[in-house]
Amino acid sequence: MKETSKNRRVDTIFVMIIFCVFAISVLIVLVLAASTYQNMTDISRDRQDERTILSYIWTKVKTGDDAGMIHIGDFNGNPALFYDEIIGDTLFRTAIYSYNGWVRELFSNPEMGLSPGDGTQLIKLDNLSFDVLESGIIVIKAGDQSLMLYPRTTINPHLHNRRPVQ
User: Fold this and answer.
1) Where are the beta strands (DSSP E) in the chain?
2) Domain extent for 138
3) Structural domain tally of the chain?
4) Which residues of the chain, if any, have pLDDT below 70?
């Protein structure tokens, strides 16, 4: 009788140990899965932010793309995309640039002397860069995403008016 009672205790202890190992394993898997999910969500959100800002820039440029009004420059030490428009007889400039971890936009008269901190924060994004190719095509990079803009001044009319091959 003593031996059966002892065997039952050993069996019970063995079952409890297996249950604890199983519970700890499940807990570890849940913690790892939650961490992985959070990382994937962060990456997805960052890429979505990159696509969103590129789409925003594309839309802004295409709605105001008059010949010679789009250009890349320096805005108080920050690379920026500028597009100019004349309202009445006054020149106004919109600057899109990255400053203090935010993509910002500033619409003003260039003679006002505003600083990069005066722009409206659009989206949190550290790295936004602009480059102009020899052909005049503007390349905008936001994180891992990039966009090529063809302002009206850079489109070759011979290529633009090509007829499709039949």
Assistant:
1) 70-75, 78-87, 90-99, 102-108, 120-124, 128-132, 138-142, 145-149
2) 49-160
3) 1
4) 1-4, 6, 64-68, 152-166
